[in-house]
Specification:
Layout (H helix, E strand, L loop, with lengths): L2 H20 L3 H23 L6 H15 L3 H18 L4 H22 L1
Helix pairs in contact: 1-2, 1-5, 2-3, 2-4, 2-5, 3-4, 4-5
């Protein structure tokens, strides 16, 4: 996929996550919001020539972005996105976590996409 395709996929997954959460499907909403975050990071990593082919590479890319732009909160926000990924498999997040944390991940995605330009 090209960088712009990852950007578009991230945006589409954000919309899909909203639909899934609104429909009451927390598992699919969780996976879609994780997908949005991972595609946003992939777009930024790809643009910079950084590895992005596995989960560890995504974590490293987020750390590099946080350092390069002086935005340490990106690391914590990515951890929240990872929580949604785990929630897809285990369904452990409470309703209040879903509501609060999805806002944080949405902000993360938008910030990373802005860094991608």
């Amino acid at each position: 996929m090209l960088i712009q395709e990852h950007v578009q996929t991230a945006r589409e997954f954000l919309e899909a996550a909203d639909r899934e959460f609104s429909a009451g499907d927390a598992l699919q909403g969780s996976e879609k919001i994780w997908g949005a975050a991972s595609h946003a990071v992939i777009s930024a990593a790809q643009q910079r020539g950084w590895p992005y082919g596995d989960h560890r590479a995504l974590k490293v890319a987020v750390r590099r972005l946080a350092e390069a732009y002086g935005e340490p909160s990106l690391r914590a926000e990515f951890s929240v996105a990872e929580k949604f990924h785990a929630n897809f498999y285990h369904g452990f997040m409470q309703d209040y976590e879903l509501a609060e944390d999805k806002v944080e991940v949405r902000d993360f995605v938008e910030r990373v996409l802005r860094l991608t330009g």
